Amino acid sequence: MVIHCVTPVLPHATLRRMSQTTEPTTTVKVRVQPRASRNQIVGFMGDTLRVRVTAPPEDGKANQAVIVLLAGSLDVAKSRVQIIRGHGSRDKLISVDGLSLDEIQRRLQNLRS
User: What mean pLDDT value characterizes the chain?
Assistant: First the structure.
């Protein structure tokens, strides 16, 4: 006698929907200036956030510095900030989990005040 275990197959979209949280995920365009004299968030110019980091653009050091700087400035965990596109470019698309664009802008504005 052979017993087969049948596991229902759910579409990929269903699995993703089940695991999503209700918190917003925001993508932000970021322009990075590596090898700057200091780590600094310059601010928004149009729809792009300008950031300066002291790390060189080699072996992902500048990318890691951007993640650490943004996470610290926005008061979120580093795991909530990810580079989606532009790992080898100055122009990046970064996602921030748990914050809306308005909240990101508010928190960055409070840093400059």
Answer: 85
